[in-house]
Design brief:
It is a multi-pass membrane protein. 71% of the residues lie in helices and 0% in strands. It is built from 17 helices and no strands. It has helices at 7-25, 35-47, 51-69, 71-95, 100-106, 108-120, 123-127, 137-153, 160-174, 178-181, 193-208, 215-236, 251-265, 273-279, 282-288, 290-302, 307-331. The chain is globular, with a radius of gyration of 20 Å.
Length: 342
């Protein structure tokens, strides 16, 4: 089974980071657009939600041999660099103003205090999230790897899949389906292992069991899972739940596994040096992309650039500037740790 980087999966990694940036850019949203266009924005947002589940699947797939051979050491190998990255970027985002106009007119503390107080209202959740919302991915990933490692260490591998499914259902019941199931969780249901564990386990089991899904079945899973996911989002609108807030739904694993399997069946898709050069910087882009995004939102606000023009510019500029920022941070030895695991 492959242990080297697979071109098609690296291509998928790049597509996924573009999807993440589109989610956070929020195109076609706001008072400048009609209700139907705002609904289209929500649909685009939800289509892009395959991205983080795909990242989790990738980690589970490639970490599987190491986790089986040396579970605790493997967890430590992920935890040390990722926690360093998470902590460093949490500090950066805690200190970075989001509203430049407020910081300039009222001062740094006036702009930041409200956000800090907001995070302090739920300190346990903040611990599983970090200094800015997108950093939840790192504690979520490490939670999943830690659970798998511990179960393997205790020779309780048979509990991995049932536990992952149980946490997923719990997360759904306390998250998107909370208006129906009325569930509760000690932290926000997207964070921690509630959703991450099942997705990491999916990649882990695909490799451990050498499961091969035909391209035809993978396509059916991809589009069937997407259709189910969007149908769920539209259905949940009747409970006054904003469609764009759903991180994971019932269709998520089907969609993600379908996409992953399709790419795995065509390993030479995206086989070029540029794919590998860019994909190895995806983690860095993930953690840093809010810096150019916040700057662009502030610049566009200052110059009243909004509507279609803003939407055409915001995501592409964020992508280019984020990769550029990662390249710059890699150059200096004292900032390289911010964007690289090694």
């Amino acid at each position: 089974m492959p242990s080297a980087r697979i071109p098609s999966l690296e291509l998928g990694r790049l597509i996924a980071i573009v999807a993440v940036i589109i989610i956070h850019s929020g195109p076609l949203r706001g008072d400048a657009y009609s209700t139907n266009v705002n609904l289209l924005s929500d649909v685009i947002n939800q289509i892009c939600r395959f991205a983080v589940p795909f990242f989790f699947l990738l980690t589970g797939y490639f970490a599987q041999p190491k986790l089986v051979a040396s579970p605790i050491d493997t967890f430590k190998g992920y935890a040390k660099p990722l926690l360093t990255i998470w902590l460093a970027w949490s500090v950066i985002y805690l200190l970075m103003p989001f509203r430049f106009d407020v910081a300039l007119s009222q001062g740094f503390m006036a702009e930041r205090t409200g956000y800090w107080n907001y995070l302090l209202q739920t300190p346990l959740n903040t611990l599983f999230e970090g200094g800015l919302v997108h950093l939840w991915y790192i504690p979520g990933l490490l939670s999943a790897i830690a659970i798998i490692a511990l179960l393997i260490k205790q020779k309780q591998e048979s509990l991995i899949v049932p536990l992952a499914l149980g946490l997923y259902v719990w997360g759904l019941g306390a998250g998107s389906y909370q208006p129906i199931m009325e569930g509760t969780t000690p932290i926000f249901s997207r964070n921690g292992p509630f959703f991450s564990l099942l997705m990491v386990v999916a990649g882990f089991e695909l490799r451990r069991r050498d499961i091969r899904i035909s391209s035809r079945t993978a396509l059916m899973m991809l589009f069937g899972g997407l259709a189910l996911y969007l149908s769920e989002g539209l259905f949940l609108r009747k409970y006054e739940t904003w469609m764009a807030t759903h991180d994971f739904l019932i269709g998520t694993p089907i969609l993600a596994i379908g996409l992953f399997s399709l790419l795995l069946n065509h390993p030479n898709w995206g086989n070029s040096p540029s794919t590998f050069a860019l994909s190895k910087r995806v983690l860095g882009v993930y953690v840093c992309h809010f810096i150019p995004l916040v700057v662009l939102f502030n610049v566009f606000g200052t110059y009243a650039i909004e509507g279609p023009l803003k939407d055409v510019l915001i995501a592409p500029l964020t992508i280019v500037l984020s990769f550029g920022l990662v390249f710059l941070l890699e150059k200096a030895p004292f900032t390289r740790f911010l964007v690289q695991m090694k």
